[in-house]
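Example record used in the benchmark description.
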Amino acid sequence: MIGVTPFLLPVPLGAGYLAKRDPERAMRRITKEANSLELTVCFKPTTLVG
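Model output (structure tokens):
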């Protein structure tokens, strides 16, 4: 069939997709959400072993 494009189903991206794609934005979002609940957030860097 010429000129017919197949229908593509959406692929679930997963719970951590946006955090992996832009970790700084995810930290800002988490911090903003916690601050709106009057909570304090502290991020500690992890060391990579390997």
